[in-house]
Amino acid sequence: MYRLGLTHDGSLRELANRWTRKLFKRPEPEPITTDNAQLRENGHRAADRDFWAVRDASFELNRGEVLGIIGHNGAGKSTLLKILSQVTRPTTGRAELYGTAASLLEVGTGFHPELTGRENVYLNGAILGMTRREVRRKFDEIIDFSGVERFIDTPVKRYSSGMKVRLGFAVAAHLEPEILIIDEVLAVGDVEFQRKCLGKMGAVVTEGRTVLFVSHNMQAIRQLCPRTLWISEGRIVRDGASHSVVEEYLRATPQEESTGDLDQAIAALPPDPAFRLHRIEVLQDGTARTNLENGKPIVIRIEYEVFEQTSGLQVYFELYHEDGTFLFETFHNGDIADLPVVSPGHYRSTATVPADFLAATRYELRFKSAISNIRWLFPPYLSVPITLHASGCVHQAYSGYKTPAKLAPLIPWETRRVG
Question: Are residues 79 and 213 in the same domain?
Fold first, then answer.
């Protein structure tokens, strides 16, 4: 339990005042309110500030099991892991762990900016519970995994944020505890490094260690964890097979209809001397919407302005399934062999996703723009969640069938009797 808002009962200042009053034998100050009704009201207000981040969340995990933990931001997942890692003391109840445990809660915790990467590997390893001999034995493997060997003797303060994350995860990933507690480490780094992290996590799982894994990546949860806990408002909503728990969680997650946040995000983009994004629209039947039908074409329209003659300008979007699977990307000039030179002017690029191509489920559109092989025009991307509902002509095994696939293209078939 935490207390919301500002309180002074436990502050150093209040503690000093109390000791001063005791030392000089001064009386305690009178309470500000003496009216009983007012005192009761203040008591209710104090109770309203009590916030249970985790409450009545009881479960057991056997040796060698891998448990996924999912839930929206603020649901209590990280607090639960901190209790299990003995970082946070529970207000009530207890956590019992049998075996050596290590936690990947904050990748790169303990890095000192003035020390080199090499020195920080030993420092970070010691913080995470590794002996100097263990770090020395695994040092080459750690550096090779991180991909920063060229800069290993450079002070960490000169590393990019991505390089720090790579090195931090590489150290933490080579721990060998009996129980491994992991909090959303697969969201770090670039796409290539995320794949590397996922592969390493898969190897840890196959080694028979006990693993608790928090992630918003539903694909990783399904792939790595046979069993999943869904936590909401500090309590366990579901505990069962990952596939069914994830499906129920995704169905219960609210989907926003408005694209007002997107307009605000576009307006807040930093100025660029070569490019300005004006508008992104997702249209069906000529109307901007995010709740769509998979039996009708979906029109994606991007309006932008180019201020100077630019070679290699690319405007594009990526489509992701709700579980994080990357489905495809498409560029506004992707059908041209050579990148053209774009003259200054106001442009509108339109893409059309054909009817009956996507299955009826939820997706995320990620819009990006760049000058090819030089720089991004707005980092990192603008996101639009969309929901597709079944309509029109769709492939189905029988009436009411819902395909488990992520794409559902109507592939032409011809069936003839040949005998």
Answer: yes
